[in-house]
Amino acid sequence: MTAGVRQQPRDADQPRPRPGVHLGLVGWLTGLTVLAGVGYRLWLLLHAAPPTNSDEATMGLAALHIARGQDFPVWFYGQQYMGTLEAYLAAPVFALAGGPSLLGLRVPTLALYALFLLLTWRLTLRLTGDRWFGLLVVALLALGSDRVVKNQLIAGGGYPEMNAAAAALAVLAVDLATGRPGWRLARWTTWGLLAGLMVWVDPLVLPYVVATGAVLVGFCRRELWGAAGALLSAAAVLGAAPLLLHSLLTGRNPLHAVLAASGANASAGWPDRLHGGLVLGPGLGLGFCAPGRCATWQLWWAFALPLLLAIVVVTAWRTVRTSDPDQTVVGPGAVSPRVAAAVRLALALAAVATLGAYTVSSSAGLTPVESSRYLSCLLLSLPALLWPVWAVARHGLGPAVTNRRGVSSTLVRSVAVLVLAATLGTAAHATWQAAQTAPATRAAEARHTELVSTLRHLGVRQVRAGYWTCNRLTFASAEQVVCAVVDDTLRPGFDRYPAYRREVDRAAAPAWVAPAGSPLAQVLDDRQRAVPGSLDLVTIEGWRIYLPR
């Protein structure tokens, strides 16, 4: 797609015809890489990694209620945004398994990751026709830093399904824009349904919905005036039906809740926002950083990303403007250069919009490490971002560019190879650092399992604890232990599911649970010392249980 790339034997911007069914070396390597990416994440799940928390447990409780037919929530408990699609996906797993579990909650998210990997590989081949480049993209997505695997595996609301849905939208846009025959109405319907679902699930993916939708409008506007447009619209309304019906019945606008969650009600200085959004954000969001931090050398991608975005936008736009709309392409899997460039342009502009929206939010300045999860959709733009680098690394610059500007083709090819190697190397190092934390996470989960077992043995059914303890404890015990939230001064805290507080308040003498060494444990220890005999203390590794007499 880059101007002046040497044509050997075809223009690098024009996808090659898809090879036959024979896999060959690159096919086998790609398949093994896909298995390695899924296998790595399965290994993490079997080690209870990434570590769970009460927010994920809240989604698990929603899935448990759905499986029992007890409740059918539209939103994540305790708020008016973030759809509960993950809970509806996990509910059948709980029903078949006979009860809830962390692994059962994450089985659908692992499946969504595998789907994302396959769809992105498919998208890469459709846009470039280069199977070796497809292998590179799959290898990058098979790796997984701490932040990336958290986004992909934790059922905390929205993140695991966004990338899979956005990849599907892009693949469908390519097929529809290129005029691929067969099942066209089904493809239009699927695109609309996925777009509507994502509007309900999480607005973070909307830049990719809008960008791929713009491709459809640009190439298929006539078709949209007929049955295709009607089916797309109806399917989109169906996908967004939970949001629309809830808003109509309650009169609440979910956009207000989204803006509040993004930090619109908080204050952060522009230097902090720019640093969090444009320096820390890309490295964390794209998987180049260690767990919870970015070393200085791992921030190099923050400087490469704007340059790559500019190259993609300029060259793709030039191809869209200059390519012959009626150019004939060869091969069953080939895509016209104009359509391929338009989709790459859409992916790049969606990445720009995602980065911009995150940077202007206060979350980028207030909580840049944790809030970098808002950039998880950037992974879908990797095929567009790296394609110019790959093309130059393989073919160098064309003679016209070299002669006119005095640029050394060898030097530029070396820089391109270095960028690709640094990208893979940085992501692999971050993955290795994330994998090292798995044993500690497994040990912490074992201690939590012992806590649940101890409470059951003591006959404790109602407890008070901190926010990050409560719903996790309730989910792990399948609601045999019910918890109400308190803050570090023992005052009532934020209960996402108010029924639990009502049950605890009705109990004669609920227990207290606190992590060892926490401020809440210190307050309860002070109370025990101030009024000797008021509390019986039971300790297990990592936890303290206070039983009122």
How do the strands line up in the largest sheet? 2-1-3-5-4
* Beta strand count: 5
Query: How big a fraction of the residues is strand?
Result: under 5%
Structural class: mainly alpha
Mean pLDDT over the full residue set: 88
What is the molecular shape?
globular
Distance between the termini: 74 Å
Task: Give the helix tally.
Answer: 24
Poorly predicted tracts of residues = 1-21
How big is the Rg? Answer: 26 Å
Give the fraction of residues assigned to helices: 55-70%
Quaternary organisation: single chain
Q: Order of helices and strands, N to C? A: HHHHHHHHHHHHHHHHHHHHHEHEHEHEE
Largest sheet report: 5 strands, mixed
Question: What does this protein look like?
Answer:
It is a single chain. The protein is mainly alpha-helical and 549 residues long. It has 24 helices and 5 strands. α14 (300-322) crosses α18 (382-395). The model is unreliable at 1-21 (pLDDT under 50).
Name the features.
549 residues, mainly alpha, 5-stranded mixed beta sheet, globular, disordered N terminus
Record the SSE blueprint.
Elements: H1 24-46, H2 54-68, H3 85-97, H4 102-128, H5 131-142, H6 146-153, H7 159-177, H8 184-201, H9 206-224, H10 227-239, H11 241-250, H12 254-261, H13 270-285, H14 300-322, H15 337-360, H16 363-366, H17 368-371, H18 382-395, H19 399-405, H20 409-436, H21 438-458, E1 462-465, H22 467-476, E2 482-485, H23 498-506, E3 511-515, H24 519-530, E4 535-540, E5 543-548
Parallel strand pairs: 1-2, 1-3
Antiparallel strand pairs: 3-5, 4-5
Helix pairs in contact: 1-4, 1-5, 2-3, 2-22, 3-4, 4-5, 4-7, 7-8, 7-9, 8-10, 8-11, 9-15, 13-14, 13-15, 14-15, 14-18, 18-20
